[in-house]
Design brief:
heterodimer; A: alpha/beta; 6-stranded mixed beta sheet; 12 helices; 31% helix; 19% strand; globular; B: 297 residues; alpha/beta; two-stranded antiparallel ribbon; 16% strand; nucleus (chain B); transcription regulation (chain B)
Chain lengths: 386, 297
């Protein structure tokens, strides 16, 4: 069995497949390998009273909660763009076949985008998504702008092939021409998942970036390999956010950060009154011809208030008269962005046992358990009863 | 009875038939003393107690938690899994209920969202969901939770946002909200709650037979519901109410900034102050107006 020493670092464990991979990259330890070789992550686990695993160090958990609280507190009085038209641009160049994300970057990105699409429509029911791919130096439209998650997810789960180079400029050009057609009250956004380390452009990308900036398109990029100056410049100019992911859980966190509505940029939002219909749900036994599938259906369905056509699901646009049809729960889903709950206060553990109540007010969990658990449960105490 | 196919797939995830039932009882004295009830509170409680006993008899591992919905506060009345309740279950529930009603009356809330005629359904729904979250975090083997609202008070419009938030979080955790209306009029909030979370909504015609309605419709666990023909949702009203007149409308105008609903075309949104048709300027004359971030931030 081979053993290797790199720059006097610790010895590798004796595993054959690791040796083969090590021959390919002479950087030595990869980040994911270091967690086994150097850091011994299994020693960081501990069992709590009920036999469930719990990490010793809760600092990262609390830090993440603290950051989330800060974010909601500062964003409370800022206007958000609620009606969003978002294009997701997926890089399917050669760089997406890299295996640093298991099994390869393309599969991981497709998985995360699927989860993102579901979360996005959950939080923004009135918005629409479209999918684009960058392959062989050209941008292709995978799906059109639509409000139903199933069609996008079906296209994502289909066969995706990676080849060639990624062209940032062609992607931006295509997005620009597609987003020009949307109504003026919508917020135009692009989310690029960029794996490549270069871009292969036919012209001057700075011109394209200025064009996107003047069309008020907010471009955000999530890089999978390393930070690129051109992506950083693009995001800075258009007001988006640029981040580079370290591993798959971090990628998931970064992608899902784009699901809640972003702050609205001044001068971008032309507020308008949009005419919408609130259809009634038909009774269970009614038979009618559905306008989206063009066949007779029994029960269920909604009737457009303007042209009385039957549609199967909401939110949608009536095929006959073009009226946007929503239901009041869809609007209500966005209210928690408009009226966010006040963040909870972190209460320090008091040494006086009489001050702390025996049970949590919200869930009746016993608060007398010792240790770090008490701190976590005290969050729940401060539910404002209003 | 024939097989009734339920189109959702979450029934297939946990085929177990152990349930955790959270019962939310409306104790609003304004409702119970009004002419809208055909049932007295004591008869109602005896029906509910018999129903809770039958739930606990159905399966040894079933759990029942009762939360009382007052008009000033909400509190836990009974928890069948609490260790001190092995004997005298009914007595402890009645005693705690009496204490709660006295405490609720003594709390005089001037800043309540709706006023004294309405009960705090949003509060008790939130508490039930907190308890359910605690159960979810207690490990992989837990009973399947559901919420049953026994409600009679009218819908408080000030609680709309809070109730919708509770409904959406119940939907995400896949917790059905069943409703049994013991008052005279239908509750639009609970109709929407049961529709969105795939629960059952029922307004019994004869309240004297409440126990029979409860046991035939609401007693079955979630796994067995796919085999039963249960009351289907009829005519859930999803129409919105316009912000200017509070009329229900089926076609209206939505402000693209704050999603307020209007029945007629206006020049300016009354909720957020946006002027329609032009880009926003930076001045904010009222402190309430929402600010926008600028590009240079």
């Amino acid at each position: 069995m081979l053993r290797k020493e790199t720059n006097g670092e610790e010895r590798r464990l004796n595993r054959d497949e690791e040796d083969e991979e090590e021959e390919e990259n002479d950087r030595g330890h990869d980040a994911w390998e270091r967690t086994y070789a150097d850091e011994r992550s299994w020693e960081a686990l501990q069992e709590d009273e009920s036999g469930l695993l719990r990490p010793i160090d809760n600092k990262t958990l609390y830090h993440a909660q603290y950051r989330r609280r800060l974010r909601t507190a500062t964003a409370a009085r800022i206007q958000k763009g609620l009606i969003r038209y978002l294009y997701i641009v997926i890089d399917l160049s050669r760089a997406a076949t890299e295996t640093d994300y298991k099994p390869n970057r393309m599969v991981v990105v497709a998985r995360q985008v699927e989860a993102f699409i579901r979360e996005f429509f959950d939080q923004n029911p009135l918005s629409q998504i479209g999918l684009l791919t960058l392959k062989d130096g050209v941008a292709h439209c995978l799906t059109e702008l639509g409000g139903s998650p199933e069609s996008h997810i079906k296209a994502l789960m289909g066969k995706l092939v990676c080849s060639g180079d990624a062209s940032l400029q062609n992607g931006l050009d295509l997005v620009h021409s597609l987003l020009n057609q949307i109504p003026s009250y919508g917020h135009r956004e692009v989310l690029m998942l960029y794996s490549a380390l270069s871009t292969c452009d036919p012209g001057d990308i700075m011109e394209t970036i200025q064009k996107c900036k003047s069309s008020k398109i907010r471009c955000s990029v999530i890089g999978l390999s390393a930070e690129l100056y051109i992506c950083k410049y693009l995001c800075l100019e258009t007001g988006g956010s640029y981040s580079v992911s370290l591993d798959e859980p971090h990628l998931k966190e970064l992608v899902l950060e784009h699901a809640p509505p972003p702050p609205a940029i001044a001068e971008f939002a032309i507020s308008n009154l949009i005419k919408m219909g609130f259809p009634q749900r038909a009774a269970e036994g009614v038979i009618s011809i559905c306008s989206c599938h063009k066949e007779a259906k029994v029960g269920g369905g909604y009737t457009c208030p303007r042209c009385k056509a039957r549609v199967c699901e909401l939110p949608t646009e009536c095929c006959i008269c073009g009226l946007t049809l929503v239901s009041s729960p869809h609007l209500a889903r966005s209210y928690h962005h408009l009226f966010p709950i006040t963040p909870f206060d972190d209460v320090a553990v008091s040494s006086d046992p009489h001050k702390v109540p025996k049970n949590c007010f919200g869930c009746q969990q016993s608060l007398l358990a010792p240790g770090k658990r008490l701190l976590f449960l005290l969050y729940v105490i401060m539910i404002r009863d209003e | 009875m024939y097989l009734h196919q339920v189109p959702t797939n979450f029934f297939d995830i946990f085929p177990d038939d152990v349930s955790l039932l959270m019962v939310l009882i409306d104790t609003n004295p304004f409702f119970w003393n009004s002419i809208n009830t055909s049932l007295s509170f004591s008869k109602f409680i005896s029906n509910v107690l018999a129903f809770l006993n039958s739930i606990l008899l159905l399966n040894q591992l079933n759990q029942v938690v009762v939360i009382a919905t007052g008009y000033n506060s909400c509190d836990y009345i009974f928890d069948s899994s609490a260790l001190q309740n092995h004997n005298q279950k009914g007595e402890s529930l009645l005693q705690k209920l009496e204490e709660f009603v006295d405490k609720d009356e003594s709390l005089c809330r001037d800043d309540s969202v709706d006023g004294p005629g309405f009960s705090l359904l949003s509060g008790s729904l939130s508490m039930a969901l907190c308890y359910i979250q605690k159960v979810f975090r207690s490990g992989p083997l837990h009973p399947r939770p559901r919420i049953l609202c026994l409600h009679g008070s009218p819908d408080g419009p000030g609680q709309y946002v809070a109730i919708m938030n509770a409904i959406f979080s119940a939907q995400r955790s896949m917790v059905p909200i069943d409703s049994c209306i013991i008052g005279a009029q239908h509750s639009a909030f609970l109709q929407q709650a049961s529709y969105i979370t795939s629960g059952i909504y029922l307004k019994p015609q004869l309240l004297d037979g409440l126990f029979q309605y409860l046991t035939t419709v609401f007693a079955t666990d979630l796994h067995s519901r796919s085999f039963l023909q249960l009351p289907k949702p009829v005519g859930v009203d999803f129409r919105a109410a316009c912000f200017c007149h509070k009329n229900t409308i089926d076609m209206g105008y939505i402000c693209s900034v704050c999603l307020s609903i209007f029945c007629k075309h206006h020049k300016k949104c009354s909720t957020c102050g946006s002027v329609f048709g032009q880009a926003q300027t930076q001045d904010s004359s009222t402190p309430d107006r929402k600010r926008k971030t600028s590009v240079d931030n």
